[in-house]
Amino acid sequence: MQLISIRKHQTNIDFALQHFGDLEGVFDMAMLNGLSITETPAPGTVLKTIVNNENVAGYFITKGLDVSGTEPPIPSDVLPGGIGFMKIINPALPQSNDFIVS
Fold first, then answer.
1. pTM for this predicted structure
2. What is the pLDDT of residues 40-70, one digit of tens each?
3. DSSP secondary structure of 46-77
4. How crowded is residue 54: how many other Cβ atoms within 10 Å of its Cβ?
5. Spatial contact of 49 and 20, defined as CB atoms under 8 Å apart
6. Does residue 73 contact residue 24 with C-beta atoms inside 8 Å?
């Protein structure tokens, strides 16, 4: 068992893939560290790990790869979302916002 810290922009899936070697590692990570599988620990949080698939985990180690996403270009709290913000424009009728969903 090793203690490894979460990196910036690293999700549970990223962490599990890199350090456990498979996606099932998300469940192992949660159980080992008393977390929910949907909880994303803050960067720098130290977690217990075990290797489930040595081939995959070893690949990331030997290649020196770090599995993590990137910062979104626009903060998610700035982006509007949901169906109330969606609009379909008919090029044939530029003044119309009507459409039929079937």
1. 0.64
2. 888 999 999 999 999 999 898 898 888 887 7
3. EEEE--S-HHHHHHHHHHT--------SS-TT
4. 10
5. yes
6. no
Q: Would residue 24 be called left, alpha or beta, if left means φ above 0 and alpha means ψ between -120 and 50 degrees?
A: alpha
Rg (CA), the chain: 21
Bridge partners (DSSP) of residue 5 are 46
CA angle 8, 73, 35 (to 5 degrees): 35
**Size of the chain, expressed as the number of residues it contains:** 102
66 closest CA partner among 4, 2, 10: 10
* Distance, CA of 90 to CA of 102 (rounded, Å): 16
Instruction: For residue 20, count other CB atoms closer than 10 A to its CB.
Output: 22
Distance CA 93, CA 25 (A): 52
